[in-house]
């Protein structure tokens, strides 16, 4: 390296400096001796400055490069769709009743099927309360009724005889009225005793407690030998033949359905009940909607019936995933929720990517379904809308879709 520098010095630099020195000497020779030194200093400075200017590297002007943002996009496709609203709910028996004792007494027998979790059929006898007192009460009421009916028969005969005697003029009207009054009293007594007999018969029948419908049993509180009072709880019965599904729609989903004039009552509902590795599907339709929006969960309760349980043996309290279908909508497109923006005036818009640049388009949204928004106008079929949110997004920004 040093050898090369030495060769360059000898071949180029030294001869040039020597020639420059000779030129300066010739120029300064005519000058007085006292002026040569200042002139040489000034000339050297000027020459050094010129050399620095000539050899100084020129800086290039910086031109900023436009930044491009890598983004994700969604291709818009218009067509007909049936919106589906997904939620979670609970299966409940349509009827849940506490079976009660209707008479007082000692439980003398209990069915083997009356236990926690058992399935019972309609009309099945579940327990028997000691009928002794009620059999006696019924017998006594019947005896009193027979006596009253005999007395009524005699009173009727007396009245008929009094009528004949009154027609002949043998007895006065007062006598006839007395017999008629007695007949009325005896007839009322018979009617009263018939009621007593029916009540006694019903009490006797109620000593046998039977299942009012097909049901699953829980919360059993009786056993053989226990004394029960009227209205004591015996067990909780959950209807095994008819179920309903209770789930929740958010207030925005509920409002979206109303805004599209969707009649919620009667809308089809599918409930998915996951049991282990199996998934059982239950179908139904909306039966009624809750009376008010619950402020704690910002939603409204929806109750749907279950058309056919089949052999699923579903129980009340089952946790299910619910899918409720809305009305069919034509010429709409579904875009991700992140693609919809709102300005300060609550005007909804999207960014359409045209020639790798963002273009603002106002859109008309119909409803939110899951994580998507249904729109009816504002973009064209096949156009790409921005789904990536970043602070630099604006009209004309350069983007790139990887």
From TrEMBL:
It comes from the Bacteria. GO terms for molecular function: efflux transmembrane transporter activity. Residues 99-234 form the Multidrug resistance protein MdtA-like barrel-sandwich hybrid domain. GO terms for cellular component: efflux pump complex. It holds the Pfam family BSH_RND. Belongs to the membrane fusion protein (MFP) (TC 8.A.1) family. This is Isocytochrome c2 protein. It comes from Candidatus Micropelagius thuwalensis.
